[in-house]
Amino acid sequence: MAHFTKATSIKDWLDQRLAIVKVEKVLASEYWIPKNINFLWAMGMILVITFVMLVISGIFLLMYYQPNVDLAFDSVNYTIMREVGYGWLWRHVHGVAASVVFLIIYIHMFTGIYYGSYKKGREMIWISGMLLFIAFSTEAFSGYMLPWGQMSYWAGMVITNLFAGGSLHADGLVEWIRGDYVPAQAFLTRFFMLHVLLVPLAIIGLIGLHFGALRIPHVNNQDGEEIDFDEESKKYLAGDKAGSKVIRFANDFMAKDMMVVGFYLVFFFYLVFYHYGFAMDPVNFDPADGLKTPAHIYPEWYFLWSYEILRPFSTDVGLMAFAFAQGIFVFLPFLDRSPNAIPASRRGLFKYWFWAMLIDMIALTSMGKLPPEGAFSTIGLVAALVFIGLWIALPIITYFEKKA
Ligand code: HEM
Predict the structure, then answer these.
(1) Distance 129 CA to ligand 1 centre (A)
(2) Whole-angstrom distance, CA of residue 191 vs CA of residue 152
(3) What is the pLDDT of residues 57-87, one digit of tens each?
(4) How far apart are CA 166 and CA 317, in angstroms?
(5) Is the pLDDT reported for residue 177 higher than 90?
(6) What residues does each domain of the chain span?
(7) Pocket probe mutation, ligand 1, options 103, 125, 342, 357, max atoms within 8 Å of Cβ
(8) What is the homologous superfamily of the domain 10-297 according to CATH?
């Protein structure tokens, strides 16, 4: 048993039992952040805040939502939207946050790619980030099922059908996932469980892992500078704050983070109050009907790029291309063969690779919502082939990149 003395204050009492002073140092006042990072490094904090808003608004929605195929649609569109005081507000916060979180995730990911923040000991940050991306995708998809509208039903049908594996005809697997031949009560109940329990728990665990993975390598910086954090933090603690290349996370860096968060919240609530419609598909305001297939079935905007990689090919090739697109980002730290952890602008062919990938994914996203006809389907096919080609080219061009 450890040695306990008579506490001099509540803080001291807690410190003897929970080492709160050490925890505070590890997480805040001696968590060192490079000085040379820009507003893009606030995206991680914005993601945490958006996740918290999703959880809080979700808890309020959960108080009135009914996970029953006969009641779900009305519990959302009638009870929550019209009867419950401010129910509409919680729904709009939840819907807008679910959409905007993906915008921020994509900015956060492409920041990491641009600055090479997945290299030299930062691989686990990247891998845990990609696991978070998969978890958020599952969370968004399962949530989309819950209002039990036409798009919920038919998107549920299309996505679960993918598990049949094309000509493998694994129909038993599809039925096992649905718990029925078609999406019905068993399907709704299990996606409800995933959405409110299992996936949020996984996300919380993964955020812990993501933060843990950041602890040893520390965050990267915008100049690709190799910072000796031990040396620089000693300088800071010795009083040479101006000469040190690092600052404390709290309260120094957090002030900058919070300013960016402030701008974000203004933008966020502007969307909630004036433009919430972009986060709600009009087709989903019709109740689910298994006998009436909508003219076009498409996912939410953040899944369109990978959907467009599935569409232009025959079923089997499309499925393989889709699986490739879903999985390939995880391997980025190992496919980029160059040791240079510097901004893309200072790298050889990689700088063209970065912009080509970004533009290609925007092109895929734009085509994904349009009907697959004429010029749209040709552009979609070319963009899908470019996507695959870029990933094949990555190890080759980075292998020959000069060491900076
Ligand atoms: C969705 C939930 C996520 C949360 C809450 C989150 C949170 C954070 C936070 C707080 C940081 C440190 C500050 C910053 O650089 O912004 C960070 C860094 C990082 N995250 Fe995420 N992240 C998430 C998703 C992702 C995803 C999807 C990826 C991409 C695979 C990713 C990759 C990274 C990388 C590479 C860094 C290190 C940046 C650097 O060293 O400069 N994260 N994340």
Answers:
(1) 6
(2) 11
(3) 999 999 999 999 999 999 999 999 999 999 9
(4) 9
(5) yes
(6) 10-297, 304-404
(7) 125
(8) Cytochrome Bc1 Complex; Chain C (1.20.810.10)
